[in-house]
Amino acid sequence: MEALAIHTENLSKVIKGKKIIDDLNLRVPRGSIYGFLGPNGSGKTTSMKMLLGLSAPTAGNIKINGQALNPATRAKFIGTIGGLIEEPPGYSQLTGVENLQVVQRLLKLPADNVYWALDKVGLIPNKDKKVGHYSLGMKQRLGIALAIVSKPKLLVLDEPINGLDPAGIDEIRQLFQELAHSGTTIMVSSHILAEVEKIASHFGVLKQGKLVFQGERGALIDSYANSLFVRTPDAESVAEIFVDSKIVRGGAVIPSVMNADINDVCQRLINAGVAIHEISRQQESLEDVFMAITAKAL
């Protein structure tokens, strides 16, 4: 059985009489980078707050690395879970290094952790600058530094690359990959799907508080990238056989063809005398797949 960093059972959250999270069953493998996706208002932030112990679930259970997380046990998880939710934290009147030293002293961490975290997020040159004078990107880096200063086993990050320029995004992407390679599990939510696509090994897609997909990246793409491209000089014939198909340059695209049906498609084209030069899957981006999943009615 696969070891899980996050395991929830029928997790639910009701706020002001409205069910925000509905029977959420997360399975996040240890050492993975888990892309947690969903439209605005789908419940991602609420879910992540519960995983960090910042909000108690209305119903259901949470296990972090095999141990139950609840109000009675939350204290023992401090230092093993790092988080960044919504606005990056930090005391504006303190410098970057002083902010990290506050956490280091509270958690009784080694002093070296402070400079390790600052170095990992590229803030060493600005460590003695007051956070009130930081740019948005620098504050975001500080938020990530605060999340990793304890060298946690699990990171839960909500929109961690907001405010970063392209070079900064690349640096943080490499940091996440490095941390995951060393054994840290990372759950990351972001609206910049192209960036999540580059790093995530597993995905969960939330819609209206319900998990509508969960699994490895290959399963996500294969399940929804189901169009077939037929390279042929007889594109009009393909369109006659498959009325939903679309004629494109070099051939035709047949939508909604599952793997089990590909042989049947080929046989029908051959029987009709269509000259087939190539048949291949359409390459669809994570954004295309995300839009397809979330467009479906629950």
From TrEMBL:
An example Gene Ontology molecular-function term: ATP binding
PANTHER family in alphabetical order: ABC TRANSPORTER, ATP-BINDING PROTEIN
Protein name: ABC-2 type transport system ATP-binding protein
Species annotation: Corynebacterium felinum
Keyword Nucleotide-binding: yes
Alphabetized UniProt keyword annotations: ATP-binding, Nucleotide-binding, Transport
Matching Gene3D superfamilies: P-loop containing nucleotide triphosphate hydrolases
Family: Belongs to the ABC transporter superfamily.
InterPro entries: AAA+_ATPase (IPR003593), ABC_transporter-like_ATP-bd (IPR003439), ABC_transporter-like_CS (IPR017871), P-loop_NTPase (IPR027417)
Domain ABC transporter residue range list: 6-233
UniProt-listed Pfam families: ABC_tran
Alphabetical list of SMART domains matching this protein: AAA
